[in-house]
Design a protein that fits this description.
alpha+beta, six-stranded mixed beta sheet, five-stranded antiparallel beta sheet, 4 helices, 11 strands
């Protein structure tokens, strides 16, 4: 009974110790203020409008335009991109599509979500969504896994009728992430996030303003890019090791106690 009480108390204490560490793995940054969100969109990857996760980026455009935004995503996050397009009262059927690309401009597949939708004639708006795979801290060179760095959102209408080309529209884009934590941890990390221009700034002299201005992306997570090696997986691995040790001690104590010879009372 004494050993059982010690084991229970140890489990409770380990659980309390792990709680703060597990909480640290969740996003600590508060949602960004929409007042800093862009109100225009770029027309290419190089001119993509930057915004932080949690902000609502808006833009006015026309059917047939390509609208580009960019946002940062770190290891362990699973971003969800949502876009809303508001259409004029009179228009023909239009199919809108949202695509997401990583820092190497590789198109990233959506796990689920309505990536493309057709707005019938007279429909006032269309909503799109794309849930990406979890961003990994490291991957094989041949793989197409999402990696930490800049991500691009491209919103456009496909197969637009000639009568609707140039029709004014307005768009809203928002990105939120779920922190997957240690379940997505890998044994490795990138030397630098996939941010356009990062190689130029890494080798540039700090006093050289011309080289520093070569950065194409100036956004990063509020707490900075993660190192890639720490996750709550270390905490739960430690808990498992301690519990295994306690179980071994308990098994030894039980078997040792059951193997003792019983005492024979005197005079028997």
């Amino acid at each position: 009974m004494r050993f059982t009480r010690v084991l229970t108390a140890s489990v409770v204490l380990l659980g309390l110790a792990a709680a703060p560490a597990a909480a640290d793995s969740s996003p600590s940054a508060s949602p960004a203020q929409d007042g800093d969100a862009p109100t225009t969109a770029g027309t290419s990857f190089r001119t993509a409008a930057e915004f932080e996760q949690g902000q609502v980026a808006t833009a006015n455009g026309a059917a047939g335009d390509y609208l580009y935004w960019s946002f940062p995503a770190d290891a362990g996050q699973r971003p969800t991109v949502k876009a809303t397009v508001k259409l004029p009262e009179t228009h023909a059927a239009q199919t809108w599509r949202v695509d997401v690309y990583d820092g190497l401009r590789r198109r990233q597949a959506c796990q689920w979500g309505a990536q493309a939708r057709t707005a019938d004639a007279g429909t006032s708006s269309v909503e799109l969504a794309c849930v990406l795979r979890t961003v990994r801290a490291w991957t094989e060179p041949w793989a197409n896994d999402p990696l930490p760095g800049t991500y691009y959102v491209r919103l456009t209408a496909v197969n637009v009728p000639a009568s609707d080309l140039g029709v004014p529209v307005s768009a809203e884009v928002r990105v939120d992430s779920k922190d997957i934590g240690g379940a997505a941890a890998v044994d490795g990390s990138l030397a630098e996030p996939l941010v356009p221009g990062i190689a130029v700034t890494s080798g540039a002299d700090e006093g050289d303003e011309e080289d520093r201005s070569a950065v194409l992306s100036a956004i990063e997570p509020e707490d900075g890019w993660s190192s890639g090696w720490w996750s709550d997986r270390w905490v739960w691995s430690g808990i498992g090791a301690v519990l295994a040790a306690l179980a071994g001690i308990g098994g030894y104590a039980l078997t040792r106690g059951s193997g003792r010879p019983s005492r024979v009372p005197p005079g028997a």
